[in-house]
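Bench notes, afternoon.
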Amino acid sequence: MKPLTPNEERHQESLDELRHSEAFDVLFDEQQKLWFALDEFLPLSDTKAEWADLTLGPELLSCSLRFKRISGQWRLVGSRHELAGEFSLPHFYKALIGASPRPTSDASESDRQLFSELRIIDSTPRDATGQAAFVRIQPGKDPLEIWYQDRDLYDAIANPQACVRTSLNYCDYLDALRLTKGTFGWQLLFADVTLRDTLQHRAEKLTEMLETFPTAFPAHDYTALTQRLEARL
């Protein structure tokens, strides 16, 4: 069996933290077998000629996971806000060659262009909440952008596609996922949004996450996430 990379070990340990904590009811977890390292798929032009200028920087190549997929679904036992989460991460190359999401039928031309460049890197297939994170395929762009879709972001005028760019790159995303364990809506902490009004219920859940997780997972530092939440309230 191939040895795990340091980042793969960290994500395996993160999944084990959920499995072994009495505070969580783990409904599903999966760590599929290792596949090829991402750099073995280079150059990407061998996959698609138009990807000749698509840049996968050294940081992304180093942090990417070889698991064909790693997933988890959980509920916090006794949660006052029904705190729950799910994540489902495919191998990054499998994300790249996957289908782009579909915009709504009345999408603008710019939204159609955006969605044609997005590929799913994380989703919630079991809870079917409609939330997903995407990498944006843009030639010459390094690091690649990460976008997030959440139906609670929908606004008929301001955001009809319910999609927002985050401040994360892919490696940042993986790091934050280990802290949040896929808590629904955690990506909003890294987006230019206000967690009030229609997103108040998200704020309540994220507040409970940051009240309970430091005790449940004492090996992690949640200070930065707490500051991000406070900045959006």
